Each structure stands twice: as C-alpha cells, then as structure tokens.
Amino acid sequence: MNRAGLFAIRDVGSLVHETSEQGTELKKTVGVTQLTAMGVGAIIGTGIFVVIGKGSGIAGPAVVLSFVLAAVACVFSALSYAELASSIPVSGSAYTYAYATLGEIVAWVIGWDLILEYGVSVAGIAVGWGGNLNAFLDAAFGVTLPDAIAKSPEEGGVFNLPAVFIVLAVTLLLVRGVSESVRANLVMVVIKLTVLVFFLVVAFANFSTGNFHPFAPAGTDGVTEAAAIIFFAYIGFDAVSTGSEEARNPARDLPWAIIGSLAICTAFYVLTAVGALGIASPDQMKDSDAPLAAALDQGAGMSWAAGILALGAVVAITSVALVILYGQTRIFFAMCRDGLLPHRMAQVHQRYGTPARLTVLLGVLIALLAALVPLGTIVELVNIGTLFAFVLVNIGVIVLRRTRPEMPRPYRVPWSPLLPLLGVAFAVYLMSDLPLDTWIRFVVWLAIGLIIYGLYGYRNSRLRRQEAS
C-alpha cells in the first residue's frame, strides 16, 4: 500500500510497466559495450587532462594514492547505483530510485537537483571545450579565435560561439537517435583512449624515478586534500544509469557498465599519473592548464605533442558533453512522464524514438547559459548536487532491502548495509568541505524547486491522480 501525501511511493512494477506505454516508449537499442563507453565517455574529460597538475601540486608524487583513494570513495556509490539500475530499469537514475524508496517529495528534490547539476555541468563543459579548441588551434596552426566570439560578455567578449556550437551539435545528435549517439560516443572514447595510450608510451619510454622523491611531501593530509579535488574527475559513472530504459538487457548490462567504466577510468588515471610524474616534476605541472602537454614538453622535450594532447582533450570533452546532456534529458523525461513536470514534454518522436521536444528545449537553454554566463564558482553546484544524489542512492538501497526484500535483484551490493553506509559517509565528508556560498546557492535552488512542486507537481502528479481515481 503506497503512503499518501508528500511521501507517496511509486510501485516498482508500475514504473517498469509504464516504460512500454504508447507515445512515451523509448527504443531498447543499447548493449553493454555502448553503456560502458557511455561511462568512460562521461568520466574521462577535463579531469584527466587538467586535474593531475592540481593534485600533484598538493600531494606531490603521492597524488597516485589520491587517485586510488578517490576511486575507493566512488566505488561504494557505484555498487549501489548498479543494484538499483538492475532492479529498476527505468529512466531517471537517482530521481526514479528515490521515488521508489523514499517518496515523491524526496524524488522531486533530487530530480530538481539533478536538472541543475547536469545543466550547469554541460554548460561548464561547453565553455571548457571552447578553451581547449583554442588551445588546439594555437598548437596545431598558430591561430586562435578572437575574444569577441570566444568569451562571455563579463570576460570581455560578446558571446561564446564555440560553447554554443558544441551544445547545439550534441543536442541535434541526441534528437537524431540514441543508437547514433552511442556510436558517436564509442568512436570518441576510442580516440581519447588512443591519445592517452600515446601519452603513456612516450612517458614510460622516457621514465625516471627522480621525480618521486620525496614521495609525500605534504603527508597524509596532502593525499586526502588532493583526493577531494580528484574525486570530481570520477563523476559521470552515474550517467550510465540514466540509460536503463534503453538498455537491451539492463539486469545484466548495467552493473557491468557502471562498475566496469569506473574500473577502466581508474586504471587510466593511475597509469597516467605515474607516467606524468616519470617525466615531469609536480612543480612543472601544478600551474599548467594542460599538465600532460607540459610534461611532454618539459620532461620529454616533445613540444609538438601538445597539439595531439589538445586534440585529445577536445574529443574527450565532446563525449562528456554528449553523455551528460543525454543523462539530463532522461531525468527530465522521467519527471514529465510522472506528471511532476508537463506531461506533453515526455512525448517521444515517432521517427527518431527520442524525447526530441524536451531535448531541444534543454539544449537551447544550456547553449544560452554557456554563451553568456561566466560559470566560475557556480560549477561547484555540480559537485554538491552529485554528492547529494550519491547519499540518496546509497540510502535507497538500504530502504528497498527492508521494504521490498522479495524484489528480484539481478545484482546485489555485497555486505549491505555496510558498503552503502560507507558510500553515504564518503559523500557527506566531501560535501562538508564545500564552500558556504555553494551551500547557499544549493538551498536557494531547492527552495525554488519546492515552490514549483507545490504549485504544479503536487497537483499534477500521476501517482496522485491515480489515487484520486
């Protein structure tokens, strides 16, 4: 029996049944390889090409341990995502899981949070894409775009044309179809992993242990401080769960894709950190916006390779933008189908099999944000939003184990509730280190969301309409 009121819970069977309704049915066309590539595509972006420099400046060579520690902090939440994604194969990720375990009001809060998190993230990624495109054009051809069309008004430009271009490009690709999108992402993942393999080959061919002494100049405090920064280079595996409804075999493929993509990225992160320190010192990388290119230039004497690394960064960031925008559209789609947002936005295009209307709407809004607004510290909202989602997903596993012990679970988190509780603890710890301004912005956004829920979502909720009838 569902609880009435704000904490009404959606039945899992009902959620799954609604995925086959005429007009809002998504095509099941994605396999385990494409899902894993989505995870790798979402995770490996600016983090691998930028954060190594910042992390090594804090922890020194012990940044290698920081990468491992950050991966451990993520793995507990990844296991919880894997259990819920295999058990509730429905679009919406943490929003849907909260609706099935913690109630409608909690689901609305996390869904509203994720709309902001993913939207700001794509806008920030788009701005970073423009910067890396300029770096590639400079390294390869000695030209750069003028500030008037490469920066926001507050930064001395008119609008950020490259940011607008990449957002609209991935929007059109997502409208065209999920099969086309995942194929394009797979190609980009292969390219950026090839670029990283190129870096590793060069680094280990010129490897020296001299830069590893002293190993941990800032001690364990430096390792944990760097891990808190590096943690955010791993964010993205949760976007895989938004593809639940379009997976051909979600019970089998989603756990493999979520955990597998995290494992692949961890291996590349650690190897890249070791390789970079083998050819360059932390001091040579810490102040660089392109630390891997700086390592090749100053450490291996290969300045020409900077163009290759810049191209790798452009491709890497493109795939991140694609997967994160895909994730946002599926969360928005799930909320519209549930009636918490306008249901007509959940209509699937008859030809393309995608929620084309809402995809275009979100793409245009994000393009405007990326064109005109210098994101600055607002990007920290991505961090707090992700960690908040991690907390609720871990709690959701514990709650669903107690309330629905009989429910089929193709994948089960081992040693529950210990590992989910560890996932909560890591997320809360990292949230506690975020600036006060970030918390204020987060609370204001949630307050706006609660007003919208009270005026529209509560009255139009599909669950509440069903209870009334």
From TrEMBL:
<dbReference type="Pfam" id="PF13520">
    <property type="entry name" value="AA_permease_2"/>
</dbReference>
<feature type="transmembrane region" description="Helical">
    <location>
        <begin position="94"/>
        <end position="111"/>
    </location>
</feature>
<feature type="transmembrane region" description="Helical">
    <location>
        <begin position="187"/>
        <end position="206"/>
    </location>
</feature>
<keyword id="KW-0472">Membrane</keyword>
<feature type="transmembrane region" description="Helical">
    <location>
        <begin position="381"/>
        <end position="401"/>
    </location>
</feature>
<feature type="transmembrane region" description="Helical">
    <location>
        <begin position="226"/>
        <end position="244"/>
    </location>
</feature>
<feature type="transmembrane region" description="Helical">
    <location>
        <begin position="118"/>
        <end position="137"/>
    </location>
</feature>
<keyword id="KW-0812">Transmembrane</keyword>
<keyword id="KW-1133">Transmembrane helix</keyword>
<feature type="transmembrane region" description="Helical">
    <location>
        <begin position="301"/>
        <end position="327"/>
    </location>
</feature>
<feature type="transmembrane region" description="Helical">
    <location>
        <begin position="59"/>
        <end position="82"/>
    </location>
</feature>
<feature type="transmembrane region" description="Helical">
    <location>
        <begin position="157"/>
        <end position="175"/>
    </location>
</feature>
<dbReference type="GO" id="GO:0015171">
    <property type="term" value="F:amino acid transmembrane transporter activity"/>
</dbReference>
<feature type="transmembrane region" description="Helical">
    <location>
        <begin position="438"/>
        <end position="456"/>
    </location>
</feature>
<dbReference type="InterPro" id="IPR002293">
    <property type="entry name" value="AA/rel_permease1"/>
</dbReference>
<feature type="transmembrane region" description="Helical">
    <location>
        <begin position="256"/>
        <end position="281"/>
    </location>
</feature>
<feature type="transmembrane region" description="Helical">
    <location>
        <begin position="413"/>
        <end position="432"/>
    </location>
</feature>
<feature type="transmembrane region" description="Helical">
    <location>
        <begin position="32"/>
        <end position="52"/>
    </location>
</feature>
<feature type="transmembrane region" description="Helical">
    <location>
        <begin position="354"/>
        <end position="375"/>
    </location>
</feature>
<protein>
    <submittedName>
        <fullName>Amino acid/polyamine/organocation transporter, APC superfamily</fullName>
    </submittedName>
</protein>
<dbReference type="GO" id="GO:0016020">
    <property type="term" value="C:membrane"/>
</dbReference>
